[in-house]
Prior knowledge:
The complex is a heterodimer of chains A (112) and B (112). With 112 residues, chain A is mostly beta strands.
Amino acid sequence: AQSVTQPDIHITVSEGASLELRCNYSYGATPYLFWYVQSPGQGLQLLLKYFSGDTLVQGIKGFEAEFKRSQSSFNLRKPSVHWSDAAEYFCAVGENDYKLSFGAGTTVTVRA
Amino acid sequence: NAGVTQTPKFRILKIGQSMTLQCTQDMNHNYMYWYRQDPGMGLKLIYYSVGAGITDKGEVPNGYNVSRSTTEDFPLRLELAAPSQTSVYFCASSRGGGNEQFFGPGTRLTVL
Lengths: 112, 112
């Protein structure tokens, strides 16, 4: 069965600083990989996804993620964080585009 | 387009009561999903549907039932509410075929 680990429960970052959120997965083949963001009181919004091809994927809001098969990782990055990036971020993995397994989430706090 | 809508937004139930969480999407998506989100646990898939008349269990189906009589609607039924069902419930939909899931705003349910 597939599983997802997000090692960091909470990250605090200064506005303008870079951000990296870690995601490790367990799955036998190359899975479908997603990053979602959830603002307080809202549903989830897709940031980016990886199915195949170029291992560096670009998403919305200036985010990017890199798939590393050898490390079973799909880390999310942003070069310069804005206050509006404060939210909870979820990594998800699936053998297809449904029946996804979500990580426990990483809460990002942005300080001025 | 309204996207995915869920009603109610909040609900308090007594143990043993029943209720139906409503979910409607206006994007003509074939795939629909119900998740629950518990603090620190990420999202868990309860049930999903790949089209009208077709439903299947997810990771945590016990205590819940679903039906899919139309493409637009995917209600979730709790028959005998238990405190363990206190959670935030999200409905989502997708076109399938590798496309993203769109989430509703959620229903916060408390069972006392």
